[in-house]
Design brief:
The chain is mainly beta and about 160 residues long. The chain is built from one helix and eleven strands; from the N terminus they run αβββββββββββ. About 15% of the residues lie in helices and about 50% in strands.
Length: about 160
C-alpha cells in the first residue's frame, strides 16, 4: 500500500513539473506575449540616445519617448486608456521628480528629487520617492502633487500601494 501511494506521489510530482514547464513556453524567448494572446505588457525605463538617458516606456515592445532631455522612468501604471510613468528629468541643473500622463509631464518638485513608483486610484495620482531638503534626501509621497514626508532623516521610498476602504 505504501509503495502505491509513493508511486502515485511520484507520478503527480512529474505531472506538476511537466505542466509547469509547458506553461512557461510560448513567448519565443523575447518576453512578449505569444501571438494571439490578449495580454498587454508595459515596461518603464530609459534608453541612451548616444548622449544622455531618455525616459520612455514600452507597450508590447514598442517604445514611446517621454522626454527629450536627460531623464528616466522608474515605474508605470495604467488606468483605463491612460498611461502614467513616474521618474525624473534633468532641468539643466538637477534631477526633478515628475510623472507623465499620456506623455505630458507634471513636475512634483523644484529641488533635486526623484519619483520611484506610481499608483492611480480614480482621478488621484500617487507617486513615491525622495526630495533634497538641503541637508538630507527625505522619503515622501505626493498625492496629486501635494507632498507628505515619510521621515525627516536621510531616506528614500521605493514603492507605493493605495488601498481604498
Amino acid at each position: 500500500m505504501k509503495s502505491t501511494f509513493k508511486l502515485l506521489g511520484i507520478i503527480a510530482l512529474v505531472a506538476v513539473i511537466g505542466f509547469s514547464f509547458a506553461a512557461c513556453g510560448g513567448d519565443g524567448g523575447n518576453g512578449l506575449p505569444p501571438s494571439g494572446d490578449a495580454t498587454t505588457v508595459y515596461a518603464a525605463g530609459y534608453y541612451n540616445n548616444g548622449t544622455v538617458n531618455i525616459a520612455c516606456y514600452w507597450k508590447n515592445g514598442t517604445k514611446t519617448n517621454l522626454e527629450t532631455v536627460a531623464s528616466q522612468a522608474n515605474a508605470i501604471a495604467v488606468a483605463g486608456s491612460d498611461v502614467y510613468a513616474a521618474g525624473y528629468y534633468n532641468n539643466g541643473t538637477v534631477d526633478i521628480a515628475c510623472y507623465w500622463k499620456n506623455g505630458t509631464k507634471t513636475p512634483l518638485e523644484t529641488v533635486a528629487s526623484q519619483a520611484n513608483a506610481i499608483a492611480v486610484v480614480g482621478s488621484d495620482v500617487y507617486a513615491v520617492g525622495w526630495y533634497d531638503n538641503g541637508t538630507n534626501d527625505i522619503a515622501c509621497y505626493w498625492k496629486n502633487g501635494t507632498i507628505t514626508n515619510l521621515l525627516t532623516d536621510s531616506s528614500d521610498a521605493k514603492s507605493i500601494v493605495v488601498i481604498v476602504e
